[in-house]
Design a protein that fits this description.
Number of domains of chain B: 2
CATH class of the largest domain in chain B: Mainly Alpha
Oligomer: heterotrimer
CATH superfamily of the largest domain in chain B: MetI-like
Mean pLDDT of chain A: 91
Mean pLDDT of chain B: 85
CATH architecture of the largest domain in chain A: 3-Layer(aba) Sandwich
Helix content of chain B: over 70%
Number of strands of chain A: 20
Shape of chain B: globular
CATH topology of the largest domain in chain B: MetI-like fold
Radius of gyration of chain B: 24 Å
Distance between the termini of chain B: 10 Å
Largest sheet of chain A: 6 strands, mixed
CATH superfamily of the largest domain in chain A: P-loop containing nucleotide triphosphate hydrolases
Chains: A alpha+beta (353), B mainly alpha (295), C mainly alpha (301)
Low-confidence stretches of chain A: none
Strand order of the largest sheet of chain A: 6-7-8-3-9-10
Chain lengths: 353, 295, 301
C-alpha cells in the first residue's frame, strides 16, 4: 500500500535558521498521526510544507506516491484546518464551506448541496447562514473542519485545531475528531504541543525538537520506551535519575547506587533512568525487595490531588516524585518519614541524550 | 469575551481611575468647553450665512440671497466643478496605487522596501508649504521635459494639480489600507490557496472584500484632503483651473462678504457628507465585532 | 513570504535549494511589481521635486526675478541670519510651540476623560472629535474670521461683559487661536490612543501603594502616555510651524510667519532660491523632530 505522505530528507531553512533538519517520515493511509513538540520545534513548518504553504529547501515530499514538493497549495490534494480556523469573516458558514468547491469549478447547486451535507456531517445543521462572528469557538472549529473535508482531501492537515478551545470543549472535540477520522478513513496529520492530546488521539505520533525528528511510534511505544531523554521528559511526567551504564542490566546512579536498567549502550555512557511517578511505590524501609529496583529516601513533601497523592522523596541530592493512587486504606507517609522507593525493574527505561 | 472585558472596564471605572470630586468637575467642564470650542464657530458660520446683512458677523434677518448668489455665480460654479473633477481623478488613481503599495508593503518582502516605506511616509508629515514649493519648482523645471519624454501635452492647470494631489494621496490611502491589512491574518489568504484558489482568486474573493472598508476609508480621506487643499493647488494651478478653496481663499484675502459665508457652508456640507460616509464605512467595518458582542 | 506559484506553472518535482531560491525571488519580484507604480510615481513627483528644492536653495536670483542654477552659493542660507528673517523664524517657532503647549493642556484632560468613559459614550465622543478633524480647513479658519471680525459675535460678547470693543483679529492671539482650533484634534487622538492603552489597574495599584492622585498622575499616567504626548506634539508642532492659511486669514500683515514668508518669496517677491532655502529649513525641522520621535521608539504617528 502506498503511504499517504512520504517525506524523505526534508530540510527547511529560513535564512540561517534550520527550522526542519533532514527528516524522514512516512504516514500511512487512514492513519491519525500527531506531530508533537514544543513551540518552535518545526512541527508547524513540516505541516505547512505538506500543505504547500512553504517550500522545502531540500528533500522529497510525496503524497500517495506523487512527488509534490514544488507544487503550490492549490495543486495539492490536501486541505488544512488552520490554527484559529482562518474562516473568511465576510462569508457565512455555507459559503465558507463551499469555497473550495467553487474554486475547483464545481457548479453552484452541486457545491451548495455538498457543502450542506458536510455541514450536517459536522453537526452544524441549520447554522449555514451564520457568519463566523456569530458562531461560538466550537462551532467555528466545525466550520473549519467542514470547509476542509468537503473537498475530500486525500490527507487532512490540522494545525493545533483545538488550541483555542477551553478544556471541556477540547476534550469533547478530541473524541469527535477521532470518530470522524475513523468513519471517513482519511489520514489526519495533526500538529499539537499538547502531549496528552497526542497520546489520546493519535494512532502514531512523531516527537520533534529543534527541527529534528526524535522518535516515531505509537503512543504506547513512545510513552513506554522513549528514545531519549527529551522524549522521556516531554511525554508525561517522569523522574530522570542520572547515572552511567555499568553493564547491559545495571545503571550506576550518580550517588553510587546501582539500579536495574536494561540498555545496549556501551559501558560508561552517561544516561538517565526514567521512572514514571505512577510506576514507583512508597513503602517502609524494612520491607524486603530487590535492591536493584529500590532506593531509600526521606519524604520531603506531600501534595494532595484528590484522586492521588504526590510525594517528593529526597534521595541524596535527587528528588524523586512518586504518585500513589488514593485508594481506601492507602498509607499516608508524613514529611520526614524515612521510606523506600521501589519499582518493577521492567517499568523503567534507560535514556541517553 | 468582549463582554467580559467591558464588565471589568466598568468595574475599574468605579475606583481610582474614575475621576471624582473637583477633578471630575474640571474634566467635565473641560470636555464641554472643547466641544463648544469645536462647534460654536461652525454653528455661527451656518447661522450668519442666512443673515440678511452686508456685514458678515451681524444678524440682519433671514435670507437665502447669498445661496442664490452662490448658485448664480459662474465663477464659484466653475471652481466647484474644477474641485470635484480634480478630487475624483486624483482619488481614483491614488486609491489604486495606494492599495497596491499597501499590499506590497504588508504582504511581501522586496529589495528597496524600507526606502519605499520611508518615501511613502514623507508626504504625510511634510508641511503643505514645503510640498507646494516642491511641486512649483518641479513643474517649472520639468513640465517641458515630461511632455517631451512622454509625448504628453500637459499644461499647468488640471494635470499639475491632479499630479500633485496624487503625490500626497497615495500615502494617505496606503496608510489606511495597510492598517486594515495588518489587522487581517495572512492565514486567510493561505486558507484560500489551500482551498484551490489561485493567487488572483485569493485576492479577489478573500483579501479584497476584507480590505474594502479600508480602501473606501482611504478614498474618502484622499477626497477630503484634495477638496481641502489650498496651498499646493494655489502654487501649481494654471489659467482656468481655480479650485473652490483657492477661489474662496482669494475672496477672503480681498475682503469678507456674506457670499463667502454661503460658499463656506456649502463646502462645510460637502465635508460633513464625506464624514458621514466614512462613519458609515466605519460602522460596516465594525459589524463583526458588534455582533460578537451581542452573542 | 507564503506560497509561491512558479513561473513554470509548478511542475511536480523534488524541491531543491535552487527551486526554493527561485520561488523566493519570484515572490520578491511580485512585491516589487506591486510597489513599482507608486514607487516610480513618488520618486518622480516627490523625491525629484525635493531634490530640486535643495538645488534651488543654492542657486542665485537674477535681476529679472528668474533663477540662475549655475554658480552654487550659500547666499540664501546666509540671509537666515538677517534680523527680519530671524524675527520671523523665532516668531514662528514660538507660536508653534505655544500652540502645541495649549493643545496639550486642553487635550490631555480631555483625552483622559474620554478614555475613562464607557465604550458607547466614548465612541460617540470620538465621533464628535473626528468631525471637525475632517471638516474643511479653510472654512474652519474662516469661521473665526467671521467671529472675530468687526461687529462680530466676539465684540458683542466683550462689549456685553464690559470689556469694551476688543479687536482680536489680525493679532498673534488670533493666529494662535486659529492654530489651536485647527490642530487640536491632532493632539487629542494620539493622546487618547495612548491613554486608552494603559492598563487602568496600574493607576489603582499606584493609589494602593500610597500615591496621591497627583503623584500617580506624575509617576504612572504621564510616563506611560508619553508616546501619545510626543506623537501629538509633533502632529501639532510641524503643521503649525509651516502654517500658511491660518496666519494669512487671521494674522494679517503684521504677524508674518514662516509659511506665509515662504509663499511671499514665490508668489510676490519672486526670490525662489531664498524661498527654497526657507522651505528646506522648515523641512529639516520637520524631519529632525520625526526622526527623533522614531528613534525614541515611537512607531506610528
Amino acid at each position: 500500500m502506498t503511504a499517504a505522505v512520504e517525506i524523505t530528507g526534508i530540510t527547511k531553512r529560513f535564512g540561517d535558521v534550520v527550522a526542519v533538519d533532514n527528516i524522514d517520515l512516512t504516514i500511512a493511509d487512514g492513519e491519525f498521526f500527531a506531530l508533537l513538540g514544543p513551540s518552535g520545534c518545526g512541527k508547524t513548518t513540516t505541516l505547512r510544507m505538506i500543505a504547500g504553504l512553504e517550500f522545502p529547501t531540500q528533500g522529497s515530499l510525496k503524497i500517495f506516491g506523487d512527488e509534490v514538493g514544488t507544487l503550490p497549495p492549490n495543486k495539492r490534494p490536501v486541505n488544512t484546518v488552520f490554527q484559529n480556523y482562518a474562516l473568511f469573516p465576510h462569508l457565512n458558514a455555507l459559503d465558507n464551506v463551499a469555497f473550495g468547491l467553487k474554486m475547483q469549478g464545481v457548479d453552484k447547486s452541486t457545491a451548495r448541496k455538498r457543502a450542506l451535507e458536510t455541514i450536517d456531517l459536522v453537526q452544524l445543521t441549520g447554522m449555514d447562514a451564520r457568519k463566523p462572528s456569530e458562531l461560538s469557538g466550537g462551532q467555528q472549529q466545525r466550520v473549519a473542519l467542514a470547509r476542509a473535508l468537503v473537498n475530500q482531501p486525500k490527507v487532512l492537515l490540522l494545525d493545533e485545531p483545538l488550541g483555542a478551545l477551553d478544556l471541556k470543549l477540547r476534550q469533547e472535540m478530541q473524541g469527535e475528531l477521532k470518530n470522524l477520522q475513523q468513519n471517513l478513513g482519511v489520514s489526519f496529520v495533526f500538529v499539537t504541543h499538547d502531549q496528552e492530546e497526542a497520546l489520546t488521539m493519535s494512532d502514531r505520533m512523531a516527537v520533534m525538537n529543534d527541527g529534528k525528528l526524535l522518535q516515531v511510534g505509537s503512543p504506547e511505544e513512545i510513552y513506554e520506551h522513549p528514545a531519549n531523554r527529551f522524549v522521556a521528559d516531554f511525554i508525561g511526567q517522569t523522574n530522570l535519575l542520572e547515572g552511567r551504564v555499568l553493564d547491559s542490566e545495571t545503571v550506576c546512579l550518580a550517588n553510587g547506587a546501582h539500579v536495574t536498567g536494561t540498555s545496549d549502550l556501551p559501558m560508561g555512557t552517561e544516561v538517565a533512568v526514567s521512572l514514571r511517578p505512577e510506576r514507583a511505590h512508597l513503602g517502609p524501609r524494612d520491607e524486603t525487595h530487590s535492591r536493584q529496583a529500590a532506593v531509600d529516601g526521606v519524604v520531603e513533601s506531600v501534595t494532595y490531588l484528590g484522586n492521588a497523592r504526590v510525594y517528593h522523596v529526597r534521595f541524596d541530592w535527587m528528588v524523586i516524585e512518586v504518585r500513589e493512587e488514593n485508594r481506601p486504606g492507602a498509607t499516608l507517609h508524613e514529611p520526614g518519614t524515612p521510606v523506600s522507593v521501589s519499582w518493577d525493574p521492567s517499568a523503567v527505561s534507560v535514556v541517553a541524550d | 469575551m468582549s463582554r467580559l472585558l467591558n464588565k471589568t472596564a466598568n468595574k475599574t471605572a468605579g475606583s481610582a481611575v474614575e475621576p471624582h470630586g473637583w477633578t471630575k468637575g474640571v474634566l467635565q467642564a473641560n470636555g464641554w468647553l472643547v466641544y463648544a470650542f469645536f462647534y460654536a464657530p461652525i454653528l455661527l458660520l451656518v447661522i450668519f450665512s442666512f443673515s440678511d446683512s452686508r456685514n458678515v458677523g451681524v444678524w440682519g434677518g433671514f435670507t437665502l440671497d447669498w445661496y442664490e448668489g452662490f448658485v448664480d455665480s459662474q465663477q464659484t460654479q466653475a471652481a466647484l466643478w474644477n474641485s470635484v473633477k480634480i478630487a475624483t481623478v486624483s482619488t481614483g488613481i491614488s486609491v489604486v496605487l495606494g492599495t497596491m503599495s499597501a499590499l506590497a508593503l504588508e504582504r511581501f518582502k522586496f529589495r528597496g522596501k524600507q526606502v519605499f516605506d520611508a518615501l511613502l511616509y514623507l508626504p504625510i508629515i511634510i508641511p503643505d508649504v514645503t510640498m507646494a514649493v516642491m511641486m512649483l519648482l518641479f513643474f517649472a523645471e520639468f513640465f517641458d521635459v515630461l511632455n517631451a519624454v512622454f509625448g504628453t501635452e500637459l499644461r499647468k492647470g488640471f494635470s499639475s494639480i491632479a499630479l500633485s494631489h496624487i503625490a500626497f494621496s497615495i500615502s494617505f490611502v496606503s496608510v489606511v489600507v495597510r492598517a486594515r491589512l495588518a489587522g487581517m491574518s495572512s492565514h486567510l489568504e493561505e486558507a484560500a490557496l489551500d482551498l484551490y484558489a489561485t493567487r488572483w482568486q485569493a485576492f479577489r474573493f478573500v483579501t479584497f472584500p476584507q480590505i474594502l472598508p479600508g480602501i473606501l476609508g482611504g478614498a474618502l480621506l484622499a477626497m477630503t484632503i484634495s477638496l481641502d487643499d489650498v496651498v499646493i493647488t494655489q502654487f501649481v494651478t494654471g489659467p482656468g483651473w481655480t479650485t473652490l478653496p483657492v477661489y474662496v481663499f482669494g475672496l477672503i484675502r480681498r475682503g469678507v462678504t456674506p457670499l463667502i459665508n454661503a460658499v463656506s457652508v456649502v463646502m462645510l456640507m460637502a465635508s460633513m457628507t464625506l464624514v458621514a460616509l466614512s462613519l458609515l464605512v466605519e460602522r460596516v467595518r465594525n459589524v463583526g465585532t458588534n455582533q460578537r458582542r451581542g452573542f | 513570504m507564503t506560497a509561491v506559484k512558479l513561473p513554470s506553472d509548478a511542475e511536480a518535482a523534488v524541491a531543491t535549494p535552487e527551486f526554493e531560491a527561485a520561488a523566493i525571488r519570484q515572490e520578491s519580484r511580485r512585491g516589487f511589481l506591486l510597489a513599482m507604480p507608486s514607487y516610480a510615481y513618488l520618486v518622480l513627483f516627490f523625491a525629484v521635486p525635493l531634490v530640486i528644492v535643495v538645488v534651488y536653495s543654492f542657486a542665485t536670483r537674477n535681476r529679472f526675478g528668474g533663477t540662475d542654477l549655475s554658480g552654487w552659493n550659500l547666499a540664501s542660507y546666509a540671509r537666515l541670519s538677517e534680523p527680519i528673517v530671524r524675527d520671523i523664524l523665532f516668531r514662528s517657532l514660538w507660536l508653534a510651540l505655544l500652540t502645541t503647549l495649549i493643545c496639550l493642556v486642553i487635550a490631555y484632560p480631555f483625552a483622559y476623560y474620554l478614555a475613562t468613559r464607557t465604550p458607547v459614550v466614548r465612541n460617540l465622543m470620538l465621533v464628535f472629535v473626528m468631525i471637525p478633524f475632517w471638516t474643511n480647513f479653510l472654512v474652519r479658519n474662516y469661521a473665526w474670521r467671521v467671529i472675530l471680525g468687526n461687529d462680530g459675535p466676539f465684540t458683542d460678547v466683550t462689549e456685553a461683559i464690559g470689556l469694551g470693543e476688543r479687536e482680536l483679529l489680525f493679532s498673534k492671539t488670533a493666529v494662535v487661536l486659529g492654530l489651536v482650533y485647527s490642530f487640536l484634534p491632532f493632539m487629542i487622538l494620539p493622546l487618547y490612543a495612548a491613554i486608552e492603552r494603559i492598563d487602568k489597574r496600574l493607576l489603582e495599584a499606584s493609589r494602593d501603594l500610597y500615591a496621591s492622585g497627583l503623584q500617580s498622575f506624575r509617576k504612572v499616567l504621564l510616563p506611560l502616555s508619553m508616546p501619545g504626548v510626543i506623537a501629538g506634539s509633533i502632529l501639532v508642532f510641524v503643521p503649525s510651524l509651516g502654517a500658511y492659511v491660518t496666519p494669512d486669514i487671521l494674522g494679517g500683515s503684521k504677524t508674518t510667519l514662516l509659511g506665509s514668508y515662504i509663499v511671499t518669496q514665490f508668489l510676490t517677491a519672486r526670490n525662489w532660491p531664498f524661498g527654497a532655502a526657507l522651505s528646506f529649513v522648515l523641512m529639516a525641522v520637520m524631519l529632525t523632530t520625526t526622526v527623533v520621535y522614531f528613534r525614541k521608539g515611537g512607531r506610528t504617528l
